[in-house]
Amino acid sequence: MASARAAGVRTKKKKGGRFRIVKMVFAGLFLLFLVLGAVFGVYFALKLRDASAKIPNLPSVMDELSRKPSVILATDGTELYRVSNEYRRAVQFASIPKLVIDATLAAEDKRFFEHHGVDYWALGRVAFGAASEGKLGGGASTLTMQLAKRVYTSPEKRVDRKVEDIALAIMIERQLTKQQILEMYLNQVYYGEGAFGVQAAADVYFGKQLKDLTVSEAATLARCVRRPSRENPFANLDRAIENRDVVLDVMLDERMITKAEHDEALKEPLRLKKRQFGSGERRLYAPYFVDAVLDQLDHLGIDISTGGYRVETTLDPRMQRITEREVARTVRDNRRQRVNTAAFVLLDKVGQIKAMSGGVDYDRNQYNMVTQGRRQPGSSFKPFVYATAFQMDAWQPGKAVSNARLSYPPAFPGAKPWVVHNSSNKYGGMVSVQSAIANSYNVCAVRVMEETGASRVADFCHTNFGFTSRLDPVLPLALGATAVSPLEMARGYSVFMLGGDRFEPYMITRVIGPDGQVVKTFQPEYVRNVLAPHVAAWMDYILRSVVTSGTGHRAKSVINARGKTGTTSDNRDAWFCGYTDELIGIGWVANEQRGPGEPPRWTYPPMASSAFGGTITVTMWAPIVGECQKLLKEQPHDFDTPEGFRSRSYEPPSEPVDEPFPEVVAPLDDITPPITPPAGAGVAPTVEPTQEPTRTSPTAKPEARTEKPTNTNYIYYEICAASGKQANFYCPETVRRRYPEGQGPAGVCTVHGPGERSP
Question: Which CATH number fits domain 324-631: 1.10.10.10, 3.40.710.10, 3.40.50.720, 3.90.930.1?
Answer without folding.
Answer: 3.40.710.10
